[in-house]
Every structure is written in C-alpha cells, then in structure tokens.
C-alpha cells in the first residue's frame, strides 16, 4: 500500500511567548508576562492513502493547521516523522514541494494590482508550469468555478467568494498530486461552497493518484466529501475512520436533542449517571438553548428534564435522533465545533 | 509512489523552474508600474525637485565664480567644473532611484509579503528562494530604470548637462555590476529585515539620508577624502554601499577622469569595477546563506511565514 501522507508520532511544540517580568504600576508586585510552551501536535500518527479524500475535524487550536503546515514543509516537527509522497518533510522538502499545493480559507494572497488571471499565472510560474499550459488550465478552471467573467478584474476588486475561488484555482493550476485544503469554504455562500466541494470530489475521484487532505469546521461538508475522517483535539487524534464507521461507533449510544429556554447551569448534566457527553448551542435572539446529549441509554432523560425545569426553564422540544458526525464529535471531544 | 509523483529533479529542470519563477515574480513589478500612472508623479517628477535644488546651488556657485573672472580659460574651467558638479548630481539622482528601490522594495519586501500572506505560498513552492528575490530585483530594476532614465533626460534637456562617454562598454559593465551588487545587498537585507519585523521600516528610514550623504549621491565622494578627520572615515564607510563606488566610476566614465582636476575620485575605474564584482559575489553568497538561515529559522520557530504571529 502506498501512502500519500504518513506521520509517525508527530509532535510539535511551540515555544510560547518569552517570559518577561513587569512591575505593576504603583505596587511592589511583579507580574510574570508571557506564556509557556504550547503542544500543538502530540504524537500524531496518520496514514493517508493515495487517491483518498481525507478529512480532519477539530475545534480551533486542535492542531489541524499545524499539521498541514508541517506536511506543506513550512514548519519543522519537534519530534516524530512526516512523509509526504514518500519523502521526509525535514530532510527532503524539494520533491515534496513539486507535488503539493495548499489553499486556506480566507486567504488574501496575491497582488491587488494584478488581475485574477495574472495572479494565478504568477503562482503557477513558481512551479515551472509552462505559460501556455498554465493559461489553458486557468481558463478551464475559471469556467468551472464561475470566475470567467472576472478573469480580467483586478484582485482588489473581487468579493470574498470570488477571491476564494481564485485561490482554489491557484491550488489546482499546478496539477498537484497532494492538495492541502485548510477550511477552503470558510465564509463562502452556499453556492460558492457547493461549487468548490463538487469540484474537489470530482478531482480526487475522477483521476488516479490525486489526494486531498481537507480540514473543515463544517461537519456536513466533511461527512459528504471525505472517504475517511480523523477527529483531532488538543493535538491528538481521537478517532480515524470512514464517516459511516465513526457513526456506528456511537450507535450503541442514544442521542437526544432538547430545545429549551436558555439555561445557565449545565454542570450537573455531566455528573449524571448514563450521560456520556453533551453540548450546548445558545440562540441569544430567541433566548433558547439547543442541548445535545449522548446517553448510554434512555435512562437519564427524566433526570435531565427534571434538572432543566428545576432551573425555571421550559422544554420546547425533545427529539431522539440517529447519530450524526456532529454527535460523534461531541461524544469524543465533549463539545461542538461552534 | 505512483508515476504521477515521480517528478524531475535534474539541473535542466531546476534552471527552467527558477527562470519561470524569476519571470513570474518580476511580472507584478513591471505590470504594476504601468497600472499605477501616479508613479510618474511620485517616482519621476517629485525626485527631480530635490535634484533641482542641488543643481541650482551648484549653478549659483558657478555663476558667482564667473562674475569675478574675465580670463576665457578660467571661465571655461569654471563652466566645466559647474557642469561636472551638476552632472554628478544628475547621476547621483539616477542611482538614488535604485538605492531607494533596494531599500524599500527589496529589503523590506519579504516582511511585506508575510503581512499580505504571500510568503508562505512562496516558501512552499519548489523554486529557489534566490529566484524569488531575483524576480523582485529584475522587476525593480526595470521599474526603477524608468525613473532613472527620466532623471537623466531631465538632466540633459532641463539642466543642460553634457556627458562625454569615451568607453560605453565599460560604462555598461560598471552600471550592471553596480546594480547586481546593489540588489545582492538588497537580497541580503531582505532576510535580515524579515527577522527584525516591524523595525525594518524604521531601519529603512534610518538608512536613507545618512547613506545619501556617505555615498556621495549629490557630490563626488572623493571630496570627503580631502576633509581632515571625519571625512575619510565617512567616505570609507560609504564605500561599502555598492552605489558609492559605482557612482564614482560612472562619473569618471561620463565626465572624464580629469573632471574636478582629477582630485575627487576614490579609485581608478578598473579598481572600482573589480571591487564591485567582488561585492556582487560576496553579497549574493551572503544573501543565499541568510535566506537559507531564515528558512530554517522560519520552519523551526513557526513564526516567520505566518501572518499575525
């Protein structure tokens, strides 16, 4: 089996800010400023097969971007090993750089004075793509991504969505074998996000040897697109499997969703016997909370309802649901992504 | 891995890749200059005011000297001297354009690229980092040459400067050696400025006026050698900027070595060309090592290629 990406016990520790002792005004007290080392990745071992669309789900600060930066040869691991296209990111970055590309959500790269087409062409030159080939690919991709009308618009005149489409084309124009997509649909409207999702899926599945590592905040996106998903939190991989298998992992558990008036005290829920995990989403405008419980069985439901009503909160709805990827995430991480 | 991932690593491929990168990175500079016509005002017309100030001062000195002289030979000598001074200022103004480009658009460029989010895309690409900076330099040279040419044209047609070029090939050799050494210095600064972050801007501002003076942009630098005490020290320090020696050689080649009585030159043209070639080699090698160090540091610390870190 050949792997596009392979990491073994990969760890990355950031030094943190320098410590600085500062005397607080008017007092003899000294304040220690700065922060200690931060472990962004903690012994991550992953294998991404060639031709796979691999997803990575995790909250902010989970280590997703750090992992992508190591794989993209932009960051050195503190310990462990990472191989991309069979080459070590630390010792042999050149052949890796030839076959990879990366697109991040909310990217503002390029030069405002250049047109969208010129910007993409410029980046393609850094990969040695012949101009004629590059321009042909750009035109084709601009049609696919619906950016053709804006091909001669200066980059500074493009909207966020158009700019992100341009970034995506930049990622594909070099015809990489391995593409890292870091939250590529972040902040995009539904149509733009759908165009990108469909193209990425077709790109991986329509050709041999193309691999995508995708990080996303959107559970449904990862569920729809990815062959396998890793759930990462605090620098550790908590689970890694197909979306179907991940959901089956918690099928023995029961998922309940309750819509209630906003409640403040939720500490008692996790202490209840039979409650494996729960998350809370507040809708301030409606003064409501959506509580998702992962339960061992239906036993604790009565106790949960009693706890909510004892706080003076009203239960508006109660629903038992099939486990979704979000439930898997909550079950493992202990909170939702939002 | 599959055949798809078995890419080329031979030298022919690498040269082709890096030439593409140079063309790619020089493109925004060359095209950008044409898209912002305001550069004509800021880059070509405004700097002429500073040059004009020096020209008028030198012409006033010449006029004052002529008023007390009736001997035709002495008057001719005064006129030749005034022309040499004005021509020195015009040539200095031409080279100032390149120095400012090196300082603001080369040295501080990587820091700026980091701020707008381009740097990590550059660092991730397979091209050599020197090709990236080379592209910036080529683009900068082309763009700045427009300002330089406009200064020269103004010098000839507005200020009536007369140049006498005896050896155009040597002139071109000195000019290009100066540019390569100058932009090599800029490449070296680029990585250092990135390490220093925001202080880079202050450093550029700090290095502007003192170097204008110590490099003799508006007067023949050899004149400082005749000032006892601090004069030679400043002239020697200024000579480490390639523009100083380049300018001195260019002045000798366009005004003749006998201008100013042959007393204001630092070295002869051949020596200055040799020193400039040495600077080209040293600065380009140092730039390469600085960039390699920067990249390793960036990857180790994780702070240089990301924005807002």
Low-pLDDT stretches of chain B? 1-5
User: Pairing-aware structural class of the strands and helices of chain A?
Assistant: alpha/beta
Give the biggest sheet of chain B.
none
User: What general outline of chain B do the C-alpha atoms trace?
Assistant: elongated
Helix/strand order of chain A: EEEEEHEEHEHHHEHEHEEHEHEEHEH
Number of domains of chain A: 2
Measure the end-to-end span of chain A.
37 Å
Instruction: Please identify which CATH superfamily of the largest domain in chain A we are dealing with.
Output: P-loop containing nucleotide triphosphate hydrolases
Tell me the fraction of residues in β-strands of chain A, as a range. 25-35%
Which class best fits the helix and strand makeup of chain B?
A: mainly alpha
Largest sheet of chain A: 6 strands, mixed
Number of strands of chain A: 16
Q: Indicate the low-confidence ranges of chain A by residue numbers.
A: none
Output the keywords.
heterodimer, A: 338 residues, alpha/beta, Rossmann fold, Alpha-Beta Plaits, six-stranded mixed sheet, four-stranded antiparallel sheet, 32% helix, globular, B: 309 residues, mainly alpha, 12 helices, disordered N terminus
Characterise the protein shown here.
The complex is a heterodimer of chains A (338) and B (309). Chain A is α/β, with parallel strands linked by helices. Chain A has 2 domains: 3-14 and 37-242, Rossmann fold (3-Layer(aba) Sandwich); 252-322, ACT domain (Alpha-Beta Plaits), CATH 3.30.70.260. Chain A is built from 11 helices and 16 strands. In chain A, strands 8-9-10-5-11-12 form a 6-stranded mixed β-sheet, with helices on both faces. In chain A, helix 3 (116-125) packs across helix 4 (131-144) and helix 4 (131-144) packs across helix 5 (160-173). Chain A starts with a strand and ends in a 5-residue tail after the last helix. The mean pLDDT of chain A is 88. Chain B is mainly α. Chain B has one domain (8-301). Helix content of chain B is 77%, strand content 0%. Chain B is elongated, with a radius of gyration of 22 Å. Chain A binds chain B through residues 2, 4, 12, 14-15, 50, 66, 69, 72-76, 85-86, 94-95, 97-102, 107-111, 113-114, 118, 121-130, 154, 177, 208-210, and chain B through 1-2, 4-5, 7-9, 13, 16-17, 20-21, 23-25, 27-28, 31-32, 35-36, 116-118, 120-127, 132, 298-302, 305-306.
């Amino acid at each position: 089996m050949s792997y596009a990406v392979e990491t073994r016990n990969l760890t990355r520790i950031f030094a943190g800010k320098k410590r600085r002792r500062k005397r607080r005004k008017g007092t003899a007290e000294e304040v220690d400023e700065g922060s200690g080392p931060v472990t962004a990745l903690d012994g991550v071992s992953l294998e991404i097969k060639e031709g796979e669309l691999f997803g990575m789900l995790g909250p902010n600060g989970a280590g997703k971007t750090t992992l992508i930066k190591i794989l993209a040869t932009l960051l050195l691991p503190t310990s462990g090993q990472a191989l991309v296209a069979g080459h070590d990111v630390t010792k042999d970055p050149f052949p890796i750089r030839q076959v990879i590309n990366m697109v991040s959500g909310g990217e503002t790269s390029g030069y405002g004075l250049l047109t969208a087409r010129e910007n993409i062409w410029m980046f393609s030159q850094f990969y040695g793509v012949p101009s004629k080939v590059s321009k042909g690919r750009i035109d084709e991709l601009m049609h696919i991504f619906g950016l053709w009308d804006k091909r001669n618009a200066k980059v500074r005149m493009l909207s966020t969505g158009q700019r992100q489409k341009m970034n995506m084309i930049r990622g594909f124009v070099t015809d990489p074998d391995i593409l890292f997509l870091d939250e590529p649909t972040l902040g995009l409207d539904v149509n733009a996000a759908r165009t990108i999702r469909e193209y990425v899926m077709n790109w991986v599945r329509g050709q041999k040897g193309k691999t995508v590592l995708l990080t996303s905040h959107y559970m449904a996106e990862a569920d729809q697109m990815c062959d396998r998903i890793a759930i990462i939190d605090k620098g550790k991989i908590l689970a890694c499997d197909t979306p179907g298998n991940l959901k089956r992992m918690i099928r023995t558990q029961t998922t309940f969703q309750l819509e209630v008036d906003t409640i403040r005290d939720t500490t008692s829920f996790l202490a209840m016997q039979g409650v494996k995990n729960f998350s809370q989403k507040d809708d301030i405008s409606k003064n409501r909370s959506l509580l998702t419980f992962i339960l061992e069985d239906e036993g604790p439901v009565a106790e949960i309802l009693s706890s909510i009503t004892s706080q003076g909160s009203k239960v508006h709805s109660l629903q038992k649901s099939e486990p979704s990827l979000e439930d898997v995430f909550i079950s493992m991480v202990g909170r939702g992504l939002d | 891995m599959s055949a798809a991932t078995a890419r080329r690593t031979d030298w022919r491929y690498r040269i082709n890749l890096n030439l593409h990168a140079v063309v790619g990175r020089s493109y925004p500079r060359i095209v950008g200059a044409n898209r912002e016509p305001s550069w004509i005002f800021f880059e070509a017309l405004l700097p002429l005011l500073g040059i004009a100030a020096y020209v008028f001062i030198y012409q006033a000195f010449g006029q004052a000297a002529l008023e007390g002289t009736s001997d035709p030979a002495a008057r001719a000598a005064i006129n030749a001297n005034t022309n040499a001074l004005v021509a020195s200022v015009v040539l200095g103004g031409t080279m100032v354009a390149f120095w400012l480009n090196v300082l603001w658009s080369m040295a501080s460029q990587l820091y700026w690229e980091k701020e707008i989010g381009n740097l990590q895309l550059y660092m991730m690409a397979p091209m050599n980092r020197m090709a990236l900076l080379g592209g910036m330099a080529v683009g900068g040279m082309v763009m700045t040459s427009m300002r330089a040419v406009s200064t020269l044209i103004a010098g000839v047609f507005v200020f009536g400067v007369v140049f006498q070029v005896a050896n155009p090939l040597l002139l071109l050799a000195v000019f290009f050696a100066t540019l390569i050494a100058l932009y090599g210095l800029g490449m070296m600064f680029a990585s250092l400025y990135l390490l220093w972050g925001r202080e880079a801007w202050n450093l550029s501002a700090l290095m502007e006026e003192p170097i204008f003076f110590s490099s003799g942009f508006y007067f023949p630098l050899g004149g400082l050698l005749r000032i006892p005490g601090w004069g030679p020290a400043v002239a020697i320090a200024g000579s480490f900027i390639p523009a100083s020696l380049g300018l001195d050689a260019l002045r000798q080649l366009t005004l003749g070595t006998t201008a100013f009585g042959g007393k204001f030159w630092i070295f002869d043209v051949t020596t200055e060309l040799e020193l400039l070639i040495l600077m080209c080699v040293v600065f380009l090698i140092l730039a390469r090592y600085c960039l390699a160090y920067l990249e390793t540091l960036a990857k180790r610390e994780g702070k240089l290629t990301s924005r807002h870190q």
